[in-house]
Amino acid sequence: MIEKLNRFFSLKANGTNIRTEILAGITTFVAAMYIIVVNPAILSQAGLSFSAVLTATVILSAFCSIMMGLYANNPILVAPGMGLNAFFTFTVVLGMKVPVETAFGAVFWAGVFFFVLSVFNVRTYIVKVIPKQIRYAISAGIGLFITLIGFTNAKFIVSKGSAILGMAHLDIIVVTFLVGLVITSILLVKNIKGALIIGIVITTVLSIPIGRFYGDASGINFGTSTLVSWKGFISAPDFSLLGKLDLVGSLKWSIFPVIFAILFTDMFDSLSTFVGVAEASNLVDGEGEPRNIKQSLVVDSIATGFAGFLGTSSGTAYIESAAGVQQGGRTGLTAVVAGMLFLPFMFFSPLLSVVPSIATAPALVLVGVFMLKPVLKINWAELDDAIPAFLAMVLIPFTFSITQGIVWGFLSWTVIKVFVGKYREISATLIIIDILSILLLVSG
User: Fold this and answer.
1) Which of 24, 147, 151, 152 is the residue whose CA sits 20 to 30 A from 39?
2) Beta bridge partners of 6
3) What number is the average pLDDT over the span 281-294?
4) How many CA atoms lie within 13 A of 78 on its CB side?
5) What Rg, from alpha-carbon coordinates, does the chain have?
6) What does the pLDDT average to over 285-289?
7) What is the pLDDT of residues 115-171, one digit of tens each?
């Protein structure tokens, strides 16, 4: 058995062993397991069942991570993407009023298009022609967007009428969130493994007295006075969202902008992850490209389509995989181990549903810190680069729409480059993307 694993995953050739790969898989899982709670917490705000989204999240993460390990032999975990789940909930379902069944269909068809583009390597080419400055800005903008969601979920930032947004009064709920944020931040700074999930647990425990001994959570917890309500420990998986996608309705012209936005957002997310992890760990091929990139993108595309069928937002490669790589993970065995660790949590939806939104809010806020790193790569000294990047970055949170940030980033880049005479920085493919962006604005 051990020898078969060595041969299948090429452990010796990659300078690793089974023990190292298992430890790396556990490390990756601990770093990313917050998605088991956070993804249902976000999608449930669109009216979806927490337990059903949790089941879909676990199945997608397990199946596609194992597939990444077996097919692509890369130590990359796959799970519903942060940013993609926010786009699905707040832009598509709540903002555009798209029925959830139709939205799941859009996710499925985006996966189909991903698959075709990945098989023929078109997906890689498209991303290469998109200006890197815009790619960096979109990543940072999504980070700010997720941070804003975290602050609003905790009722730390609220509507202030003429002031648009402002800070809420320091009630017990806000104070509990702030304590959780400080604790989680300290854990991260000290490089504690699983800092985000530990922070979620601690903040949940701190929230138990709210509504029981002091305070009232009815304004934040759907009319329930207590913030944490015990619903049990274990139950059968909830498959109520399985297959609840509208394949025909999601092919209407009005839904194509949604498919388009999912496609490109996921492309930026997954490719940046593959490149980033490969560069950090020297997991590259003879040409210096990320190892097995085509196979990895195929798995990523399947994760997107499968997500629509299961009943969750798009799956994508996770940057938290770098934690396992730092632990020594070099092959797909790391991803297989991480994927298998998700499976038991399919049965713990009652236990995990006790987690209130203010407990996941610190994790959302701090995810923004990680996603803002690319902003350092933006060429702020050249205004024809900086202005489009800036617009893309700030319009994502300011418009509460990832799509709007991407669209205006592309369009402003093209217009400014034309008027300063830098035509060589505008490719024919980018012009096609601009046309699609304008169609997206008109149809929206």
Assistant:
1) 24
2) none
3) 71
4) 35
5) 21
6) 65
7) 888 888 776 666 667 788 887 887 788 788 878 888 888 888 887 766 678 887 888
3-state secondary structure the chain: CHHHHHHHHCCCCCCCCHHHHHHHHHHHHHHHCCHHHHHHHHHHHHCCCHHHHHHHHHHHHHHHHHHHHHHHCCCCCEEECCCHHHHHHHHHHCCCCCCHHHHHHHHHHHHHHHHHHHHCCHHHHHHHHCCHHHHHHHHHHHHHHHHHHHHHHCCCEEECHHHCEEECCCCHHHHHHHHHHHHHHHHHHCCCCCHHHHHHHHHHHHHCCECCCECCCCCCCCCCCCCCCCCCCCCCCCCCCCCCCCCCHHHCHHHHHHHHHHHHHHHHHHHHHHHHHHHHHCCECCCCCECCHHHHHHHHHHHHHHHHHHCCCCEEECCCHHHHHHCCCCCHHHHHHHHHHHHHHHHCHHHHCCCCHHHHHHHHHHHHHHHCHHHHHCCCCCHHHHHHHHHHHHHHHHCCCHHHHHHHHHHHHHHHHHHCCCHHHCCHHHHHHHHHHHHHHHHC
What sign does the CA torsion over 184, 185, 190, 191 have? positive
The residue-averaged pLDDT of 399-410 equals: 81
Among candidates 81, 52, 38, 87, which has minimal Cα distance to 396? 87
Place of tokens 């854990």: 187
* pTM of the shown model: 0.74
Q: How many CB atoms lie within 10 A of CB 3?
A: 7
